[in-house]
Design a protein that fits this description.
single chain; alpha+beta; two-stranded antiparallel ribbon
């Protein structure tokens, strides 16, 4: 009879880094080892806070699964979601009630964790993230909101952009209703 040692402890929180993302892409045969090594060599001196998927997408490498397509940011985001066993979400701002979702957390809190609330029901809040290995916010929000948390992976540039847009719109609407 086989026994399985299941480790139920969560790994410490860590943001994605380019080296690990490239290693995973090479292991999944989406990027050649030589290309990954060259990118790492070229990026060593760069300290910019650019999400690793954005860095890889900027290389405009061909997608070996579909030779006529590039490994663009959406394809990489879908790959990341699948790799981490989380649902992928393409954020459609027209389907989001920004006034409701921005009440879930402050803009500063959302920015600090690179997360974006995208839907709220009486039982659950859906939060988009581009950092699948950062969980600290999840427990904090669950306690404060007393709602289940559903995590989804979304394009890091969409999260960054919609964070600004949603919270600015919510402030504008709130300001207009106070007049």
């Amino acid at each position: 009879m086989a026994t399985f040692n299941v480790n139920t402890q969560r790994q410490p929180d860590r943001r994605l880094d380019l080296k690990q993302v490239l290693a995973d892409l090479v292991a999944d045969q989406l990027v050649a080892q030589e290309a990954a090594d060259q990118l790492l060599k070229n990026r060593r001196s760069s300290r910019a806070e650019v999400h690793p998927l954005v860095v890889v997408a900027d290389q405009k490498w061909k997608d070996p699964r579909q030779q006529k397509k590039l490994l663009h940011l959406e394809a990489l985001t879908q790959w990341l979601a699948e790799k981490n066993g989380l649902p992928y979400l393409h954020i459609d701002p027209f389907k989001i009630d920004f006034a409701t979702v921005t009440k879930v957390m402050s803009n500063a809190y959302a920015e600090s964790y690179r997360i974006l609330p995208v839907s709220v029901t009486t039982r659950e809040v859906t939060i988009a993230t581009c950092e699948p290995h950062v969980h600290e916010w999840e427990d904090q929000l669950r306690q404060v909101l007393r709602l289940d948390i559903k995590r989804v992976i979304a394009n890091p540039l969409d999260i960054q952009s919609y964070l600004v847009e949603f919270y600015n719109l919510a402030r504008s609407v709130k300001g207009a209703t106070k007049k």
